[in-house]
Amino acid sequence: MSCAGLYEAALEHSHHEVAAVPAALAETTKMVCPNSGMSPAGCHSKLIVGGLALVGIGAAIGYFACKKASCCSSRVNKKIRLGEGKVADTVDVEDIGEKKAFCRCWKSEKWPYCDGTHGKHNKETGDNLGPLIVKKKE
Ligand code: FES
Prior knowledge:
single chain; 138 residues; two-stranded antiparallel sheet; 4 helices; 2 strands; 54% helix; 6% strand
C-alpha cells in the first residue's frame, strides 16, 4: 500500500472512531452505578461527596501536621541548656555590683548575662531585642 493509501485508510478508521464516541456516551448515560442501582447522576454525586470528604480529611491532617511542626520551629531558646525542662537562674544581689545586663534574647554566650549578641540578631532580623539592665539606685 502506498503512503497515500495508508493515509486514507487511517483517515477512514478515525472517522469510524469519532462516529462511535456519541454512541458510547449515550450508552454511559444509561449505565447504573455498580452494586447500587443508582443512576449516573446519583452515582456522580456520591463520588463528589466522597471526594470532598477525602479532601477535607487531607486538609485537616495537613493543618494539624503544619501546626505541630510550627510549634517546634518557633521556640525562642535554641541554644541555652536545651536538655533542661526549664532554664531558671539565680543571681545574688551582692554579685550584681553597680550594674549588670541580663540577656533577654536567649543568644548570649555568657548566659544569663548579655554579651551584645542581641545587636547582631536585631541587625539580621529587624527585631528590637535588648537586655534587662539591673543597677543600684544612684
Ligand atoms: S545578648 Fe541577649 S539581650 Fe544581649
